[in-house]
Structure formats: structure tokens, C-alpha cells
Fold these 2 entries.
Entry 1:
Amino acid sequence: MAARKKIPLAFADAFSALETTLPGRSVPWLSRLRAESWDRYAALGLPTVRDESWKFTNLNSLRRAGIVPTPEGVPALDTVPLGAALSIDAHLAVLVNGVFRADLSSLPDAEAGLSVKGFAAVAEDDPDALEGSLGKIADRDALPMAALNTALAADGLVIHLRRGAEIEKPLHILSIGIAGETPVMFQPRVLVTAEENSSACILESHVGVGDGVYFSNAVTELDVAPRARVRHYKLQNEHPAAFHIAAAAVSLADGAAYESFVLQVGGRIARNEIQIHIGGEHAECTMNGAYLLRGKQHADSTTFVDHAVPNSTSREFYKGVIDDTARGVFQGKILVRKDAQKTDGQQLNKALLLSRGAEIDSKPELEIYADDVICSHGATAGELDNEALFYLRSRGIDEATARGLLIEAFVGEAVEQIGHAASQDAFQKVVDGWLRDGAQTRAKDGDSA
Amino acid sequence: MAATAKTIEQVKSVGDKYKYGFVTDIDLDYAPKGLNEDIIRFISAKKEEPEWLLEWRLKAYAHWLEMPEPEWAKVDFPPIDYQDAYYYAAPKSDEDKPKSLDEVDPKLLETYEKLGIPLHEQEVLAGVAVDAVFDSVSVATTYKGKLEEQGIIFCSISEAVQDHPELVKKYLGSVVPYGDNKHACLNSAAFTDGSFVYIPKGVRCPMELSTYFRINAENTGQFERTLIIADEGSYVSYLEGCTAPMRDENQLHAAVVELITLDDAEIKYSTVQNWYPGDEDGKGGIYNFVTKRGACRGRNSKISWTQVETGSAITWKYPSCILEGDNSVGEFYSVAITNNLQQADTGTKMIHLGKNTSSTIIAKGIAAGRSDSTYRGQVKIMPNAEGARNFTQCDSLLIGDQCGAHTVPYIESRNPSARVEHEATTSKISDDQMFYCQQRGLSDEEAVALIVNGFCREVLQQLPMEFAVEAQKLVGISLEGSVG
Amino acid sequence: MLEIRNLHATVDGKEIIKGLDLTIGAGEVHAIMGPNGTGKSTLSYVLAGRDGYEVTEGEILFQGENLLDLETDERACRGIFLAFQYPVEIPGVAGTTFLKTALNAVRKSRGEDDLDAMQFLKHVREKAKTLGVSDEMLRRPLNVGFSGGEKKRNEALQMAVLEPSFAILDETDSGLDIDALKVVADGVNAMRDPARSMLIITHYQRLLNYIEPDHVHVLVNGRIAKSGGKELAERLEEHGYAEFLDAEAA
């Protein structure tokens, strides 16, 4: 190894500043877990582009953002700003700067089988309930930012889905970031346990209000028991100045099914990472998503599927539209372990570059140690199909409209993969809004030119 | 390689003139083990190199000392003791060598027989006769006159340094700078010989130029350096074959190949690499750490790499193209076969700088036994590469459930008018295919060889005829013992 | 030539052949007919020795030798040829390359020398011509992108080139139009020989109009339900398999 210049640890004083304020601090195992996680983060450091998994996402601007662990002048929030969030009829759990706000939430009746509690409250009142799940799925060696979250998470949600419960009405987690006079960071932690044969649809909206810089470092752990089915859809629509780093770590047991969709449209620098461990046969996972970027946005979609047992299936389909000087990153890895015969893993990322200065970096990856498998991946990058554009224009459609139609159709291929109809509509609205904003900006630019 | 024999001669002849601070009790037929500035000065002096080249070597050496080993490849081996190798051809005393073919491992002879290499060459390859002259040189000498008529220069790089210093100085290290990576850096410091080709403007080289490399002596590293320049409107097809005798210890092969094409020129570079892969238990074998890169400097120029990698304990190799000239074309066709405990991490880089540049990557990886085969490739479209195109197809085939096949592409596009397509698949030979072949009378091994040859066809058909036959046989031989 | 005694065979643990007896003499052409799913194709795979087709009881003697002791390729080299219902595609392997490899494997087992390229091409071209297989088709990767008819003609060509002593034709008529059927049938008929036996597996009687069998057997539920001459095939054409199915059910 070359002598790398030692980079000072980012947020170095965060643990000492916050440790004594964390819920359940008198619980020995919890304190120990936090301390170990902090040590792990401190050893790994804030990832740099020298870390293979972060090759395309540079966090230097986060490092330099002047974020303090205990910020001042953070305004209070009394009403729920729904504008930027998914619009859907659902139970609502609100987090403001990572803190669960029961007063702003409308939670389901636990009698029906879906219980939603604040993480801090559980850590204080019933810490043993966390011991079996907190930090059990998120691999802190592979996810240094998850280690940071585990060390510092002050609140979040604990979601429990009772055996056999089939919950029709989705649960919508709304995470709101508000910046104070000094840039703030927060570490929401969401734990989901789906017992055998249960099913539910969980949505997340990550939005910001006001102006200023905040950094949301979110971690969700999902434990999906045999034959349970979890739909997990996420909208990342953070404030344009915000930093968003999130990891969802998922464990799938026999016959479990997990369907994910992630739409990234917000933030200054954003990364959504999904790690799926398939430990049960005949489990199925689907990871779809889209990233729509403009300005100087940077969004990274990184996924990892670990096929550890035979007879499991994974499907992944991402689409990206990148305008201006934005940069999209897609990294998807399929690991098939030695005994995971009959694995069927397919993955595809397609990106559309709309302007000079836009960039897409794709790294699809297969690591395969079993022979009787069918695995494939594909990646494309390019501009709109000129022939299609010409065809539409030859039918009398003006160029701007034709481009709009084609981009909409391109993104639509991803959105229509969403299995839950009402959720699909909610995401489609966000996509439509993004396309409209783009059309208006273009029209304005046209006027001024 | 012929250069080995030649350098031995040089070492012998230079004995008395030797003047660079070695302790006096050294047997002057040998350069001592290990690498240091003195050894580099010694090598350079043997070759009567100009001062600038020595300086360049020394700069590379200083840099090499500081450089980290590349650690990103998916290969695993104990740290190399660079001081435990000879950097200047240094055969041990004759007692250690087999004295006749009878003493050579029959397995080795069997392999050569299958390759159709005649007996006298087997003797040479087996390390019996180190003073034999090799094909690379005989080709050069046989046809040197004919090539010279057309202004083509084909000689060893040592000769080129003497006879064409202006070309060497202009292009050496211009595609692979000495600080590129640790292995290339070592080569820059310590290269002993290699080939040099210059094809003048408008000349289409009338024959395939070829080199047959071999690692012969024990405990030697081999560091050859190849430099090929195709001037405007010229064409050359270059073939490279590699074999090595079986040795229990690992031997390092850190070669550098640089290709340069000017306007409208084309270089086709084909390799069949069959270095000794080690035995069934992974003992011995060559560490093949090679840096190959071509620069399409000129408009409409083309560089095409074709490789069939069946040998070596570890292959670390990424023949690449830097597509600078507008409309230039880069191609990479690769078959990598690993068996037993072999490890291969190979692929390419296609760097698109010029407008309307295009690249094609076809990579076929076959892993058997307990081996690991990785395709690692980068396609990078820079902002000015208007209208650039890339198509990549990577297919992996696994034979048995103890091996691994991996695909790691990096696809980076910074130009909206560029079109990049990447596809990869991993599968095994289907039971249906095996049954069909067996029903027609083919044994397991024949069936596998046939199906794998079919799987690799797109790549194999890129090879010049005489190489294609050898390569097809190699496919079968490499996979022996992988089924049943 | 071939003697099957009390054959029981399973696939994935499920018994498909349930006590089948069949004797085929040298030079004879037998047809096995039966409804879908009665074990016709299973029988052909058992004879050819496909993995996963397990014989649990009974024996198969081929020219006096226990067939079940032999690997698939050994059986092929002894002269057993299976014309597949669905010939598999092998990308990148030219038809000629495949044929040459197969022919030399078979010749080697007979103690004959490899044919050189010229002899081989001469041998193949003659036969290819009568079957309407063009040089272009021979050069293409084996069966890749072939139409149904081309695949079957190619199977017939392989049979002609390899000159087996016992040929199994598995649903050779499926996917063939009438012209192609005639070409294939002519090819097969040309190979009829006192030293060569054939087993034709078919659902429909149609093929038997072109390749006339000496004996016809009805296979129902893994057993021979009835045997007869070619008139049995005609009866089946008229009345279907209902009577045998009913008998079986009763």
C-alpha cells in the first residue's frame, strides 16, 4: 500500500457530543453497539473515491459543508409540508430531522397487525425489543455510513408486521429535513420486521423545507420472514442543497418477496444503497428505480444482491435521465455464492443523457461461484433515439413536445414496474412534475435566448 | 525468447569490460539476484544504451520503489519477493538442467506435441538447449532484407535503440508512461529486450510479424518491451505466442507493449498466451502481469487486440486503446480460459477522446476446476467524443461448481451523443448440448472442447489462420480434466 | 438387434416406463405410437442413455451387449443414433465441424482412421445433396436459426453420415410440411438395410405413409398395449387411442 495521506475524520466530534443524549444510553448492549459502530466508522472514515464502492461519488463537499452535530437555530415545524412528498392515501409516520413526531403522524391501529413506534421511545421503554434487530442486517463493514448511523441514531421508527397480517393500506414514512443557521445532520433509523406470511406496502418520502444545508444519513433494516411480502417504495426528493445518504439492508427468508422502487429527483449529492441478503430458497427480490437529475445534482443508486442459497431470483431495472451538468451513478452487483445453484439474476440500467456536461457512470457487476445459474446484466447510455424523434416530428409534433414524450416513455418503462397501483400513480405524478419543470425551464431559456 | 540467449552471450562477452561496482567475486557470467540501481546500470551498459535511456530507467526504478502494488484485481497471491529473482538472464549451472528429452517431464512433451511444435523445439522449450535461436529472430533475419526493401523495421528493441534512437526516444513510454502501474514501472526500469516494429507511411506489411516468447531459465523474471509504430496509412499484423517450461516456483512476466497508429494506419495484434499455468494443485506457474496499450493517434486509425489466454497461474492484463484521432477504432477480442487453480483478471479499457470514435469489446471467459476468471473493463467517453460508439459483449461459461466467473465493467459516458451498450451473461454448458454431442459419439471432453470452441468462435475467427488452429487445440487442452 | 425386457424407468422419481418389452430384429423397422405423455420420448432417451432417465428394473440388450452399462457416447459409437424431436442449437460450432468430430469419434471406436478434410467433405456432400442440405447450411452454426424443416433434414443428414446400426426417430414428422417430410422420409428409406434397424416414434400415422414399418406398437401408460402390422397404424388413424386408454383405465 502506498502511504495515503491521512484524511482527518469527518464529524470527528459527533459521537462525544451526542453520545450522552442518545435514547437508551443506560442500556449496556446498546451503548456497546454504538461505541463499536462509532469505532468502525472512525476506522473506515467517510468514504472517498479511493474506496471501490464510492469510486464515482465524491463526498468532499459534504466533508466541507460545515455540518455540526448539535446545530443551532433549527426552526420548529408545526404542519406537515406535503407538496414535495408522494401523494397517496396511507397511514403517515412523520420524522422531522430524524425525530419521530407522533403529533404530526396518523398511525395505523396496531390491532390490525401493523405496529409503528418511535425508535427513541422503544430504546428508552423497551430496549430489549431492539436487540434482535438493530444492526443485525446492515453490514457495518461494507456500509461505513450505516455504522455512523448506528452510532448516532437518535430516533426513527420501529415497524412490526404481525404473522399473517395482510395490510392493505400503505404506510407512508415522511422524512422532513430542515436546516438551521448552521448545517445539520441527522441519522434516522427504521427497523422493519415482517413476520411469516405477512404483507405490506411501505413508502418513504424524503423532502426538505426552508433553505440551507442538511445531511440526512438514513438506514432502514428490513427483516422479511418466510413467505412474507414487502413492497418498499422510496421517493428521494430532498432540498436541492441537501446531502442524502441512505442504506436499506434487507434479509429475505424462504419464499419471501421484496419489491423495491426508488426514485431519486432531489438533493445536491445523494446516494441510495440497497443490500439484499437472500438466505432463503425461492425468495424473490425486485429492485427497480429511476433517477431524474438536472442542474449540478449528483445521484448514486447502488445495489447489491447476495444469493446465498439455491433457487432464488433477483430482478433489477433502473432508468436514468440526466440533464444539464448533473451526474448519475449506477452500481449494481449480483453475487451468487458457491451453493446457490439455479439462481436467476437479471439486471439492467439504461441512462439518457440530455445535455453536454451530463454524465453517467455505470458499474454493473457479476460475481458468480455457482455454475447452474442464469445471470445477466446490461447497461446502455445515449441520447434520445433520433429516428423516433424524427418520426414524431414527421407527424407534426414539435421538437420540445416530441422530446418530452420520448423522455416520459423512457422513464415510464421503470415506473410501470411498480406493482402497487396507487403507488405507481403517486410516483408517476412526481415524474410528470419533474418533466413539466424541465419543459418550463427550457421554454424560459428559449425566451431569454 | 531469443533475447535471453543473446543476452547470455552478451554477458559472457562483456565480462572483462564490466565496470559497475559489483563485488569482485561474482561469477561474471551472471548478474546477481535482485534489483537495484547497479543492476539497472549494468543492464543498460550491456546494451550500450544512450544516457537518456539509462536516466529513464533509473527514474522508473526510483518511482517503482515508491509505488504500491495494484490491489484492485480479483487475484490472490503471496507478496512477490522482487529481490529473489534474476533481472538479467542468469541460467544456473548446467548440472541442474535436464540433459536430454528423457529427463523432461513427459507431460510437458505431450503438451508440445499436441501443439504441433516439432521435437527440436520441444528440446529448446524444455530448457535443454538454451543457446538455440528462436523463431522471432529467425523470422526477422529470414525476411529482414525483404522487409527492409519496403522500409519496414523489425528488430529487437535493443537494436532499435542503437539503430533508430530517434524513433525509440520519441515513442517509448509515450503510451504507457513508466509510472503507469507497478508492473509497467518495473518493466521500464529493468526491461532486457523485446521487439520493435516500424511500418513506414503507406506500407502494408506483406507478412505477419511474429514473436515467440518463452521464459526459459529458472528464477528469472521476464520483462520484454514491445514497441510498434504504424505510420500514416500503413498496416501490420503482429502475432505473439508464449510458452514456458514447468517450474515449481512462480515466475514473473511483466511485459509492456505499446502500439501507436498515425492517420489511417492499422495494427492488428494477436496473442496466444500459454505460459505454464502451474500444476493441478496450483504449484508453480507464471505471474503474467502485462501492460498492453495502443494509442490511435491519427484520424481513421485502428488498433485491434485479439487474445487467447489459456496459460499462466495469474493473468493480469488489460490491452487497451486510447482513441485520440477522430473516427478511430478500437477492438478487443478475448478468450480467457482458466482451469485448476488459475486466476485471470483480464479485460480492456477503451478511452474515447476523438469524435466518432468507436470500440467493440467481445470477451469470453471460461472457468473450470477451482479457477477464477474475471472480466474487468472500462469504457470511457470523454466530453469531446461526439458521436462515439461502444458495444460490449461479455459472456462467461462455468464448468463445474468449484470455479468462479466475474464481470466488472466500468461504463462512463460524458457525451450525450455517444451511444454505449454493454451486455453480459453467465451460464453453463447446457445439459441438452452435452447430451446431443454425446449422442453423436463425442466423449465428455470432446463435447466440452467443441462447445467451448463454438462459444469462443467470434473471438477465434479474429485470429490469423495459423494461430487460430493452435488456439482451437489449446481450448481443448486447457480444459482437460475439467469434466467427468 | 435390440431386446428390451421388463423395462421400468423413472424421471425425477416418477415412473414413466412401467414394464416394457420389445424385440427388434436386424433390418426391421418398428413404429411406436401413442398419445402424448405415455413415455415415447422417455423411451428414446433411455435407449440413448440420457442423464436423469433412470432404469429401475429390467434390461436392454443391444447386439447381445448390456446397453445400460454404457455411457451415452459409447452407445453412440456402438451404432445407436437418436434423431431428436428438438435438435439443440450449438452456437459457434459449424455443422461440418460437428459432423466431422462426431464421425471421427465413431470411426475411431470402430478402429478406423480419421477421414481427412477432403475425404470427409466428399462423404458428406453426396449425402447432403440428396437431403437438400446446402453447403451454406453446413457452414452455419449447428441448428442455430434453422427452421423446423432444416433441423430435421440436418438430423437425417447426420444419420446418413454416421451410418448407425440402430436409429431412433423421435417425432421426426413434427414441424415438417409435406415436401420436407418426403425429403426426410426418402433419406431414411434410402438407409433401410438388412443390417440396420429403426425405431420410429410418432404420434400420428402420417409419417408411416412414407416410412413403412414392419411392426407397429401402441404405447400407453408406459407399456406396450398392442402390437401389430402397419394396419394397426391405420386403425389408430381412424379410431384414435380411445379404446386403448379405456382399456387401460378399466
Note: The mean pLDDT of chain C is 90.
Entry 2:
Amino acid sequence: MIHNPLLNKEFRQRMRTNRAPIVITAYLLSMAALTFFLLYENVQGQFALLLPARSEQVFLVVSLLQMIVVTFLTPAFAAGSISGERERRTLAVLLTTPLSPVEILIGKIISSSALLALLVVVTLPLYSLVFLFGGAVPQEALAVFGFQLYTILAIAALSVAWSTLALRSGWSTVLSYSTVTFMTLVSGILGYGLQFAAGRFPVDAFLVQWGSDVLQLNPLWVEARLENAVQGTAHSWVIFIVFYTVLAAVLLTFGVWRLRPQVLSFMPGVSRSDEKNYQ
Amino acid sequence: MIVTQNLSKKYAKQLVVNRLNLNVRQGTVFGIIGENGAGKTTALSMLVTLTTPTSGKAYVNGFEVSTDPVGVRRSIGYMPDSFGVFDDIRCEEYLLFYADCYRVPRDIARQRCNEYLDWVGLAAKREAYVNTLSRGMQQRLEVARCLMHDPPVLILDEPASGLDPRSRIELRSVLQRLKEMGKTILMTSHILHELVEVADELAIMRAGEMMAVSSVNVLKNHSTAYRTIRIVGTGSDDLWKSALTEDKHVLNYHIGPEFVEVFYGGTVDQQARLLEEMVQRGISVHQFFEYETDVEELFLRLTGEVMTE
């Protein structure tokens, strides 16, 4: 693993308090209770009657619920990462060390994703319960697991980028949650709205495609497709991953500029007198 | 060790630092004094590579700040004027983290950590969380942090700001020891007395410009040679003026309602003759005593700058 002092420090800081084990334990217990409840409800107390199709439904519900939890929890850990350093006045000193802005941003992204990734990992045994009754296959579970990890990383990267660009934690939190709201709610409503409109106004053939394009930006929809629970063409996750990776890369490039404004001073048209101090 | 050549910084249309020329020699302590908004912090932020100069050049330990910022960063220990500390991290971990940022080998970092914690009087606080320390302790921990990669240059922005008198004394002794270690130190303050205690050379900045530079030794010698005398007595203004203007050792004077203040550059014998002269002219002198010289005023006077405040 590439040596990143900031990452080591952040892990130490985040994991040493009681908060981390309490959050993980509470989350695992809640998810376990929910899974048992759903499985029990599906068979009305008769486990021998469990049908694979119903078991798959449980898998779908649990994994979608987990996706909602992690998408909305990730900004809470990442949105104040850089702006918080700025507000606590620790950023300037950090920037006078040989650490590069990229190392700082990577350290923040990985450290703020770590606890969420741990939440996803600890729920893996719950998925094995579903396998016990058939329905979902391990490949599906692994695909969902990998996709959730990517989504956490993407949201953390976007939140860290907003945290770098917005200067204030309040604004970066608003921007991060707006991003998550777009990903989960706005894209879903817009996508299904367009597809619904296509049914009402069949003249416009593009509406269906547009609706589908927008839905491919929705992590819940993409995850549901990974489980084959929603009909459609395969590989919708590719568009999702490409879109959010490019978006995060663009925002993080601006973030690097925010941390070290002088990196762009060599560009034509950018004067050094335009450079401000954002530390 | 630190050289600037016409270093300027402009934010939009405002010239914050204007053609700054500095030459800080190796192993010396150079103090910059200036009121808030004088451009001290901006000047330092260019030297520590947080911002780039709009024009001019600056070299730290031979590295140019714009073209070789990493070389500069490896050469300096920087303490900003208002700094913060991380939550949930112990003093020892705090120092080791910064050593790690400079890729200091772990065993050397541990050795330095022990040495510098002891050195700044925080050995007993090794396991304490940094955010639970008092401001003075945090300030000393910051000094230790600056030393973890053994930089030849320390740049300290208002190191004593916000400290109580006891912490100021402790910090002063730490700075003295740094000086003995041979570190080149550039520090700022808006209190001249603070700098006089530790600095070898002093400069005054105002409105982004360097107004004057003086050696502290010269300043100290002059502060014993030049004195402020307060005289309480009765006599007309004309009598006072004639007695004071005729004495060539009187550099300046101010006739106030309660006393006359004289800035005097002569010897003690000459001072006695001044008193005699005043009495002979008919001034009834009730009190004649030396008053503590205002170092700041003296500094400005010696460097040819007139106090405008």
C-alpha cells in the first residue's frame, strides 16, 4: 500500500473512539433483526416453506436498504474533511509539509470511506442467510457488495471535493447531500417520470431512452439491476461508474487547485495576481 | 539563508506586500515587527509556499519558493499565527505524524519526539490528547513539531500571540535554545519588546513595505545612550524652549501640562549641566528623573522613521 501518513493518522483518529464500534454494532444488529424479520414474515414462521424467489426479495430489500443507509451516511463522514481542517486551522501547516494535495485528498477519501466500507463488510454474513434458502447467488451478492463499495468511494470523493471547494463545512455538507439527493431521489423521480411520460406521449421516442439514461445514474436502480430484479440491458453499472468517476476526477482537480492555487499559475491566461490564499 | 528580492504580493488590485527585500543570515534570529495588516503574514505565506509571489524572488536555504517549493518545505518548520490542533490524537502521535509527513525514519522520529517533548517541557504530557493542552503548551508543542524533521530554518508567525505572561517567558526560553542550536529563525510580532529579547536583527513593516532594518545590538546600545527624561517644574514655555533648544544633546522634547518630556542623547554629566542651566534660567525644577525609554520610539527614531500614531 502506498505510504500515506495522513491516512494512518485519520484511521487512528476515527477508529480509536467508542463511536466506531458502537455504530458498527448497532448497524449490524439492526440489519440482522431486519433480515430475520423479513425472512420470518415471508414464510410466516414456517422456514421449510421458504421459496427461493421470496428469499431473493429479502436480499433485494436488505441490500437496497443498506445502499440507502451508506449513501446518506457517507457525506456525514466526508463532507467536513478538508473544510474542517481549514476551520480548525490545521490545513495551512499540512500544506507546508511535503505532502502533495493528491496525497491529502486520497488520504481523506479513503479514511472517510473506511467506516462505511466496514459497515458493508460486516453485513456479508447476513447475505449468507439468504443463500441458505436459495434465490440469490454468490456472484450477485459479490457484485452488489463491490458496487456498494464503489458507491461509498464515489460519494466520499465527491464530498471531499465539495469540502475542498466550498471552504465552509456548512456549504460542503449542503452540496454533498444535494449530490446524494440527486443520485438517489432526483435521478429516480426524473428517470421514471420520463418513462411514464413516454407511455402517455408515445410520439416522443426519445423519452424512454432519456429516462433510462437518467436512471443509470441512480445507485439504487443500478444495484437492483445487478440482482436481476429489474429487467433491462446489462452493464448499466459501467455508465454509473464512468459518470461518477469522471465527475469526481473533475471536481477533485479543482480541489487540488483550491489547496495549491499555484499549480495552475503556469497556465496561459492565469495570472499570479489572480491567486488567492484558501488556507 | 533567507533572501527576498523585490518580493511583492497583490490580491486583486490591492498590493499587500510591496518590493520586500530581506536578508536573513544563517544562524541568526530576524524579527519583523508591524501592526495588524502590515503584510507580515502574507510575506511569510510566500516564504512557506502557501502562496506564490506576484513578482520578485525569494530563496529559502537556497531553494526558490516558486520553482522549488518542495525544497523549501523540506527546509522549514512553520508555525502560523493562529493554528489549530487535531482532535483525538496524543502529543507523541502528533509529532510522529508530522515526522512521517517528512519521511523521517521511525526510529529517528521516536528519538526526536522524546528529545523535543522533554525539551519543550511536555515529556509528562506525551500521552495527553493535544486538544486538551493549554494554549501555551500547544504553542510549545508546535515548536517541537517544527523541529521534527530538523529543518535549518524556522518561520514563526506571531509565536507569542494569545499567551499569558508565564507562557511568554517559557516560549522565550525555548526560542533562546533554538537560537543556541544554530537555527535560522524568522519571526514576526506586533510587540517590539518581545522581539528585542531574542532577535539579532529587526525590521519594521508598514502597509506592505519594509520601513527600516536595524541590528538589535545597535538598538540596545542606543537605548542606554539615549534616554527619556521627565522634568516637573514651573516656568514659562519660552524659558523651557530656550533652555532645551540650546542644549545640543536634546534630541526632542514635549512640553506638557504636568511635565516636560525630553529625549536626551548626552552623558550623565551633560544631563546635570542641563538641569543647572534650567535652574539658572529661572525654571523652578521640582522633579528631574529618567523615564523608561520607549524601545519602539527609539527604533523608529534611529531608523529615521517618525511615529505617526
Note: Chain A is about 75% helix and 0% strand.
